[in-house]
Amino acid sequence: MGRAKKVVLAYSGGVDTSVCIPYLKNEWGVEEVITLAADLGQGDELEPIREKALKSGASESLIADVKESFVKDYAFGAIKANALYENSYPLATALARPLIAQALVEAAEKHGADAIAHGCTGKGNDQVRFDVAIAALNPSLKILAPAREWGMSREETIAYGEKFGIPSPVKKSSPYSIDKNLLGRSIEAGILEDPAVEPPEEVYDMTKAIADTPDEAEYLEITFRRGIPHSVNGEVKHPIQLIETLNQVVGKHGIGRIDMIENRLVGIKSREIYESPAMVVLIQAHRDLESLTLTKDVTQYKRGIEETYSQIIYNGLWYSPLKAALDAFIDKTQENVNGTIKLKLFKGNAIIVGRKSDVSLYSPDLATYGSEDKFDHKAAEGFIYVWGLPTRIWSQQDR
User: At what angle do helices 126-137 and 96-111 cross, to 10 degrees?
Assistant: First the structure.
């Protein structure tokens, strides 16, 4: 089934993406497979992954270091939007997909490939995110998804790979399916598929158990400029270093764990466990700073935009006209989101205990109940009459 001559394959080094290489060549008549692994700060040793692709039959094996772009162009945009899918998940995995798609498209264009392939199954969200993002960036490229079509069980997939010299995993080191990058980890499968079962401590890696956290609180100050995190405890940090520092400091106190029933894009519910220490506290702090620096109407209107924005990311529509339009709105709102938020980290809790900004809209003279009070109390009576007039008329008519 000759669908394409030269293919760029999104490659992780796992069973499915490794088997995709001989499968594409032998079953679908692809002449050349180039693999691309994205370095998103997942911590894996990428050189063995690169070599495994070549041993599995790839003509070239590429590594794309996209960590800085991942933070500056994706994570920071999500923070400005306070993007939490279903008010819980800070989208650490979902944010990586449009960036990987961009790297795949750039590689395909550079190497003259006519198709892009991935190892996603037909059950998850990532197939949609990849397919839609690739189509948005270059609609002339074909998209191949062998694992969505080959109909093999895991055992059959391993056996197929062995026929072409791909070694089977000695043992499945973990019953869980884990995706990790600089922004966090997602953990699913195994006993976690029963939503009534408490996640065992072994599933966590970035966050400590409450029993193992420090017995003294730690204070943390995060400074933002135009809505973007800029420094921690007064020290300016490079974007990657800022995320890494916060992951370590916040995770040490057991903060950043999420256990939720999630509505997947394909219509099923899944039980998901996430760890995302830095993103959890950055969005919490950013949202609080907005309450100090944005007007009431902008703050309240933006909440609806944030819900839509998180759905856009989750649903794979990063490259879309609506996303671009909302970006313009959000960027405008961030012009004065400058200041510092002070958090107290203790036993699984990040508590905001202070905030300050040179462009704060909080007026002590108006807020105080002391002798310095500058609010005109006499003005309230006329305001209340006008404000309540529609209600008064309705009540009279209704009676």
Answer: 50
- One of 2.60.40, 1.10.1660, 1.20.5, 3.30.300 is the CATH number of 364-398, namely 1.20.5
Supply the pTM of this predicted model. Answer: 0.92
CB 184 within 8 A of CB 275: yes
365 catalytic per annotation: no
Q: Which fold has domain 177-356?
A: Argininosuccinate synthetase, chain A, domain 2 (3.90.1260)
> According to CATH, where is 3.90.1260.10 located in the chain?
177-356
Residue 128 in marked binding region: no
pLDDT at 2 over 60: no
Kindly indicate the confidence band of residue 1, based on its pLDDT and cuts at 50, 70 and 90.
very low
Q: Is 126 a catalytic residue?
A: yes
Residues forming CATH 1.20.5 domain(s) in the chain: 364-398
Asked about 16 being catalytic, the answer comes back as yes
51-66 pLDDT, tens digit each: 999 999 999 999 999 9
- Is 10 annotated in a binding site? The answer is yes
| 310 belongs to the catalytic site | no
Tell me if 369 is assigned to a ligand binding site: no
What is the topology classification, in CATH, of domain 6-163? Rossmann fold (3.40.50)
Catalytic residue among 50, 61, 126, 131: 126
Q: Does 133 appear as a known binding residue?
A: no
Torsion angle in degrees (nearest 10) through CA of 80, 85, 90, 94: -100
17 annotated among ligand-binding-site residues: yes
Q: Of these residues, 39, 50, 61, 97, which one is catalytic?
A: 97
What is the structure's pLDDT at 170? 61
Q: Which long-range contacts (CB under 8 A, 24 or more apart) does 299-308 make?
A: 302/82, 302/330, 302/333, 305/81, 305/329, 305/330, 306/81, 306/82, 306/83, 306/84
